[in-house]
Amino acid sequence: QFEPTSAEEEEPLLAKQRQWEQNHVDRKTYLIAVLKASLGPFLSFTIFSALFAFLWHVVPWLVGGLFMVLFLLCLGGSVLSLLRDRVDRAYGLAVLGSATLAAAMQGYFNYQVNGYSFWAYKERQEYSDVAPNDPAGGVADAAALYFTAESSPDKRFASSFGTGSNTYCAAPITAGEAVIPDAVQYWAVGLDCCGTRGFRCDDTLVDGAHAGLVVYNRTHAFTEWMGDDFYRYEQAVGMSVARYGLRAADGHIFVRWVENPDSARFAFLGATALLWLKASLQSLPISILLALGAPAAARNARETVASKAQLIPGSPLP
To answer: What's the confidence (pLDDT) of residue 208?
Structure first.
């Protein structure tokens, strides 16, 4: 038979039970506080990266103004809080400002690489019934060219330029003549779409495709880091010229051979949205890690470990 436990014996057990329940509440409160602390940087990154990626081309003054206001407020508030020994607030504002700055950089990169092409194609001209021998200078402001029915990328004279990681492909647009006496005005180009299987860039293999989306010769802040695609297409054209005895016209135009230029243009918008979504999702765990590194969070963690150690006899305090 078991003897009933005395009140003196029950009191330590109840105290440990109450302490365990309090620790459980403290851990839950701690996790909620961390999630709240990470929410601000995450939302700032998500919102400002979207603003720069999607709206910089339309209202750069508004996007830039909003960024500067929030960033300077975070910077100034962090410095003032640090001078007043409010370390937690200073850290939180510094993290928020850093997230806003990172969002601006990522969003601007996304705009330059993807978003710009969507807007630029909308602002330029379209030309119809373009023959392969029509002077390219007459359509220099084109966003899209609709070629005559007999026009197509001439796979016989396709060539490529390799960089080790990518292959830049180019083929002259002709009417299928046995001999090309004139300088080539238009070239179909693409990335990693030619080789032993021939030139198959974009919609080259689609029978109804007779349009070209113009590839612009432009540089931006990230060109030196990413490389100049236009220059590499020029190298591919140079190899075709040297190999087959062709002539490239001055001011020749590069195009992506597509069936529907509007669909191809909106693909840039889709690429912008996809890169924004990936970057936003990646920013969430980073925001949580930064919240865990906050001074208040570190103190809370130490206190939780210390109180847990007190429940275990002989456990050393941290």
So the answer is: 87
Alpha carbon distance 236, 252 (integer Å): 13
Low-confidence ranges of the chain (pLDDT < 50): 1-2, 20-25, 301-302, 304-306, 308-309, 311-318
Q: How far apart are CA 228 and CA 163, in angstroms?
A: 11
Question: Please, how many CA atoms are within 13 Å of residue 224, restricted to the half-sphere of its CB?
Answer: 1
How far apart CA 189 and CA 131 sit, in angstroms, is 18
- The 3-class secondary structure across the chain, one letter per residue, is CCCCCCHHHHHHHHHHHHHHHHHHHHHHHHHHHHHHHHHHHHHHHHHHHHHHHHHCCCCHHHHHHHHHHHHHHHHHHHHHHHHCCCHHHHHHHHHHHHHHHHHHHHHHHHHHHHHHHHHHHHHCEEEEEECCCCCHHHHCCEEEEEECCCCEECHHHCEEEECCCCEEEEEEEECCCCCCCCCEEEEEEEECCCCCCCCCCCCCCCCCCCEEEEECCCCCCCHHHHCCHHHHHHHHHHHHHHHHCCCEEEEEEEEEEECCHHHHHHHHHHHHHHHHHHHHHHHHHHHHHHHHCCHHHHHHHHHHHHHHHHHCCCCCCC
Task: Find out whether 188 and 255 touch, Cβ atoms under 8 Å.
Answer: yes
Beta bridge partner(s), residue 147: 130
Beta-bridged to residue 257, according to DSSP, are 212
Of the candidates 199, 207, 194, the residue with the CA atom closest to the CA atom of residue 167: 194
pTM, whole model, 2 decimals?
A: 0.78
Question: Which residues lie below 8 Å from residue 137, measured CB to CB, with a gap of 6+?
Answer: 251
Amino acid letter, 308? K
Say which residue the tokens 């601000």 belong to: 40
Supply 10's token pair.
């029950």
Please tell me the predicted confidence (pLDDT) of residue 8.
53
- Evaluate whether 64 touches 27 at the Cβ level (below 8 Å): no
